[in-house]
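Data card: per-record layout.
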Amino acid sequence: MLLREKQFTFSVHKLITIVLLLVLTVLPDSLLANTLHHSMQVQLDPERSFLDVKNAIQLPGETESVSFALNRNLKLSVEGAELTVVNDSPDRQFRIYQLSRLTENRKVLLKYQGFIGNREKNDLFGMPDVIFNDEMLYLDGGRAWYPRFADHPLFTFDLYVKLPDDWQIISQGAPENSADGVRFQLNKPQDNLYMVGGPFQRFSQKIDVDGRKILLEVYFFNKDKSLADKYLSHSARFITQYSRLIGDYPFDKFAIVENRYQTGYGMPSFTLLGSRVIRLPFILHTSLPHEILHNWWGNGVYISYLQGNWGEGLTAYMADHYYSEQRGSDREYRRKALEKYANFAANQRDFPLQAFTSRHDQASQAIGYSKSLMLFHMLRRHFGDELFYRNIADFWESFQFKEASFQQLIESLAQNSKLDPQVFLKHWVNRAGAPELMLDEAKLIEVASGYQLNLQLSQVQVGDAYPLELPIRITFEQASETFLQRVSMKDKQLQIKLVFDQRPVRVSIDPDYDIFRLLSQTERPASLGRMFGAQKQILVYPEQASEKERSAWQALATSWQKRYGNVELVSDKSLTEIPAEGATWLLGWNNRLLEKSADRFNTGFQKMTSHRAVNFDKQDFSFNQHALVMLDADTMRQPLGFIGAQQPAVINALARKLPHYNGYGFLVFSKETVENIFKKALPVLNSSLEKVF
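The structure for this 693-residue chain is written out next.
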């Protein structure tokens, strides 16, 4: 999701005239109390990234003065109030102003113009702060192209846009076409104003959701217009589904807009998806429902970011995790979520969920998405589906178009239950870290009534115990069914005695990964994510490689250093053995250390042969035809990986591709096209939370 303070930029070789009429609407007193209204006329000169704006503002309340932020590149004048510069720090992109001596009707006319500027892509997860060219227009409030009032963050609007004939414009609300433009009206308080434009092909249909008409739109570039019908039909399905589960869809339209940058952003009543993204078939079942759901969580109920962003976790749980449930793969989904946390966030990079605002690296993603969604899963397991979803609907009814904190959400979900929301917040939201479980003892004793199972469990993390509801699964010798026992663990030690008339043959603690916890070393299979998340990645390149090959390995190391911040590149000539610390990558088939370490890659399911080939699960992959990645599957040893590639073009492609395969331990790519043709997650060889009798 695109957070409301995210900034963007742009630059277009057409003149676009935009008129924004932000008018008063009749709202409930509770929503009107802190809501302002604009009436804006905006002219954009895309070739210069130049803005010329007349903005008539109706201020609410009775205060005698009010402050706002505006892009510092915009020259400002005012009618109807006295204007004072409060903060003009040159190292900030905003200038802070104060309005005083307001007229009795509290109407103010602001006029401003100037060059809004251009910025480059500034992180791995986003896009440029400003997009404005002959291919695309993007504007949002993060750039403060309109005045942002800290004391009055919400507003309503009526937006009219005039554009060249070959362009379309998208904003919040349903469009109304006129002779010379398009108008958007929305009488629900908003915390940001978005505009996206470009030479799109528009497709639309209206759907009926329990008697309510909703407009669905697709704005795609011409080459992708064949995908429109699929996106319309899937959007109809998900909007209907979430409306019935949570409450009415909060807008009169939903649009899917194609972006030349590879994004997945959710704005009020539309989403911005990258060109390559929309062509991936699984996006219809993953990113699309995720961004639709943000119309409830994030754009329907606003998030109190200073108290922690709960929106991404709840959205991921109700969209992405729900999809995995439908496919029967939710256990694997939760395992991967816990792996992400263990690989990228645990220990030195961890922080409390209340400090999460947005995703900016792998650690923040693991906490704000993976940890957060697991907490909602635990709550659902605790409450049961009926109470969980009933309280979700009540939360939506109470907080739509208002800000809600993590505390308010948890308190709402805890209604009509015995859960203490303050205890939950203390351990799972306000506290960094995770419980670490150990199965200290598992003994099976024959008794007169059958078999007694004695278990001793402990939490070994630093600090207090986490309150847990632990699932314990018992598998029996003769029975086809298993027995699932849930036990409460409030202290760091727990002893359990269970008696059965059948003989248990296996006991598993939290076998379906229902608890947010730090996976033990033995529960985490060898994976690329585990390599990337190590405290240090040592990349060993072959000294005898050609200059072009060495340059490619250097570029790979530089790219990964920017992404992970833990990379060291060394020559195989400088080492006599695999380093004892960190995760080590052996680069290239001609690496001196490869022959010495080949045995570490050999298991019952994979083998590195002497003739530059690999056998995995009885399939052969050769040096001549393939580039491949394989890992030492034994997680009790220091992590070791191998990248079998030598051609610079292949190495460059793998540098981009491999970070997207975190959950896998064996990968094969076509040497010619560098397309993935085989991938496997490695098995967990031995789990310390499982005992076989």
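Known properties of this structure: The chain has four domains: 1-197, 303-428, 437-519, 528-680. Confidence is low (pLDDT under 50) at residues 1-31.

See the next section for split statistics.
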